[in-house]
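Notes from the pairing session

We agreed to fold both candidates in a single pass and log them together. This is the raw record for the first candidate, unedited. Please don't reformat it; downstream parsing expects exactly this layout.

Candidate A
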Amino acid sequence: MQSGFYKGYSIWGHAIPEGDRYAANGTITHESRVIEGSGVLGYFTAEEDAQVAGLAWARAWIDRHNGS
C-alpha cells in the first residue's frame, strides 16, 4: 500500500494480490473518515503499478469533486 496527501485528503493506493497479478484499488479519507473507495480499477503484474493506479484514481476523484 502507498499513501499520500492531496488537497487536504489522505489518499491510499492498494495492490490486492490475485494469483500472479494485483488488483488496483484506491481509498480517500478526510479527518479519519472514509470519503470514497474505488472498487477494482484494473489488474497489474507489478504491485507498485497497482498502487500508483489507486493513487491516481484518488487524485482524479478529488479534482472532479472539488471543482479543481
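Candidate B (folded immediately after A)
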Amino acid sequence: MTWLVTGGAGYIGAHVVRAFAEQGIDVVVLDDLSSGHAGFVPEGVPFVRGNILDREIVRSTLGQHAVTGVVHVAGFKYAGVSVQRPLHTYAQNVTGTLVLLEAMAELDIDRMVFSSSAAVYGTPDTDLVTEETPKSPESPYGESKLIGEWLLRDQEVAAGLRHTSLRYFNVIGSGYPDVYDTSPHNLLPLVFDALLAGRTPRINGADYPTPDGTCVRDYIHVGDLALSHVAAARRLDAGDDIEPVYNLGSGEGVSVGEIMAAVRDVTGIDFTPEVADRRPGDPARIVASGELAARDLDWRMRHTLVEMVDSAWRARLEAKSPRP
C-alpha cells in the first residue's frame, strides 16, 4: 500500500506526507516546486519533481512506485489571484486533475482523497455551512475546485473510483519547526514577514458586514487537517463507506481582526494593521460545521487560536530557509 501525495513538498502537502509516514504508510511525493520546497519532504520519502500536467511523469511515478491511492493536494490555490489568472488556474486545477485521473484509470488505481476548498461555497446565505449548502463559487479558483469534485463524481460512475473531497477552510499553524507557510498571499505569512522586516502588517478590507468589519473565517490547524487525510485514506483502503465530501471546519468563526490580536499576543509586537482594499473573490464570512468529518475522519480542533498562531510564529522563526 503506497499513497502518492501530489503537491507533497508544499506547506499543507508536507504535513500530509509526514502524517502518512508517521503512521507507517508508504508515501511518495510528486511536486514541481512552483510553490513547494524540496527541504519540506522528509528524508527517506521518495520525491519526484514534476508537474501534474506532464502525463508521462504522472504515469511513470504512479507505476514505478506501485501507487495504490492518491492524495491530490497539488494546485494553484490563490482565490484572489485566480481572478486575474483564470486560464492558468483552470489548467493547473482542472486539466491537472483530469490528467491525474486518466493515469490512475490506466493503471487501475481506484482511490483518491481530493484537496477541495471552502471557496466552492462563495458567500453562503447561512451562518453555518454544511456539505449540503448550495455551491456558488465567486472566483475561478473556487470554480476549479468544484469542477474537480465533479470529475471525481463522474469517474466514480464511469470507472468505479472510490473517493472523497475534503473542503478546506483557512489553514494555519505548523506541526514541525522546519515546515511553515511560505505563501506570498496567505494572511499569516504576510503579517509575519512584515513584522520581521519592521513594517506594519496590512489587511484586506475592514468594511465587510461583520462585527468588526473584517472577514470572518474558519481557521484550522494544518496538523489536524493532515490527520484527517490519513483517516480518509485508511477508510478507502478498508473499503468502508465514505461520504463524497467533508467540510473540515471548526463551527466557529474568527475575524481577521481577532487574528491580528492573537498575533500581537504571541509575538509581543504591538501594531495596528494598515487597511488595504478588499481582495477580489473574498466572501465576508464563511464558517462550517465539521460534524460529518468528526464522525468519519477523526476530525477535531486540537488547538486554540493562540496555539495555532504561536506554532506558526515559532516555525517561522526557527525554520531554516527552505531549499528550492
